[in-house]
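In response to the reviewer comment on reproducibility (Comment 2.3), we provide here a single inverse folding case reported in full, input and output, so that an independent group could reproduce the run without further information from us. The structure tokens appear first.
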């Protein structure tokens, strides 16, 4: 009997203790990423910190811990297309790769539901690093929401002469005010009518911010979404959130790395 009591009182094995410690580190990375990262990204972050572990092991531990990444829902069409012109050119043609900053931008508008009604998020993304260069949140869908967002983006960047800005054919993006502003120093590009995949990157981002962040909250007032959007874009997505397509760097890190290499050459 004494052997039994010794057995139940014995301390965990070294292997069990190590596993417990790794699980704590996984939980830490998961929480710091706002419960968004899955096994591949958590593995990358652990490896960066010198914790050598395989993706499969992290995935197994996460299942044991009952945590998982929040998966993306299917795309839902939320914009109304305009018949402004059947000749609006699609320059991008689903080529979403840019070899340097400020050569390819994409933009779109999405809605955010609140108990008081909808608010509307206009975003501009730079395809080089997937950074959200500018965004506007409004309670109306006037063309000014797009104009203000473009002006903000232009003020923040030194524009390349060949910069292309791509959008869908919504009425805001074929308006006279938008065309005049953009044509000053950019080229306009448009998706085919009713085809979300022609503007997949910004559509994906708007699905991402809802799936990873906004759907967690009961948004009661018009003013509440601003702080939520600011927190996600400015303190997480642009600055912290790593992307597999960016060699597991954040958009800001990726651009800084580009500038560092450029200056050293």
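Designed residues, in position order:
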């Amino acid at each position: 009997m004494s052997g039994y009591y010794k057995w139940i009182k014995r301390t965990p094995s070294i292997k069990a203790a190590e596993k417990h410690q790794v699980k704590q580190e996984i939980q830490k990375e998961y929480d710091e990423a706002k419960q968004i990262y899955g096994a591949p990204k958590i593995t990358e972050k652990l490896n960066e910190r010198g914790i050598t572990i395989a993706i499969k092991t992290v995935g197994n531990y996460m299942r044991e811990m009952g945590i998982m990444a929040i998966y993306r829902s299917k795309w839902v069409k939320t914009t109304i297309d305009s018949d402004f012109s059947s000749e609006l050119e699609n320059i991008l043609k689903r080529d979403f790769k840019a070899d340097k900053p400020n050569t390819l931008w994409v933009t779109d508008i999405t809605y955010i539901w609140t108990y008081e009604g909808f608010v509307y998020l206009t975003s501009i993304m730079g395809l080089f690093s997937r950074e959200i260069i500018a965004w506007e949140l409004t309670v109306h869908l006037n063309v000014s929401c797009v104009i203000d967002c473009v002006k903000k983006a232009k003020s923040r960047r030194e524009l390349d002469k060949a910069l292309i800005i791509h959008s869908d054919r919504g009425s805001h993006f074929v308006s006279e005010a938008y065309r005049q502003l953009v044509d000053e120093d950019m080229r306009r590009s448009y998706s085919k009518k009713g085809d979300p995949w022609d503007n997949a990157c910004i559509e994906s981002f708007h699905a991402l911010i809802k799936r990873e962040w906004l759907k967690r909250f009961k948004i009661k007032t018009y003013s509440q979404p601003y702080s939520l959007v600011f927190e996600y874009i400015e303190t997480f997505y642009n600055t912290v959130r790593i992307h597999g397509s960016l060699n597991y760097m954040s958009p800001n890190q990726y651009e800084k790395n580009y500038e560092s290499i450029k200056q050293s050459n």
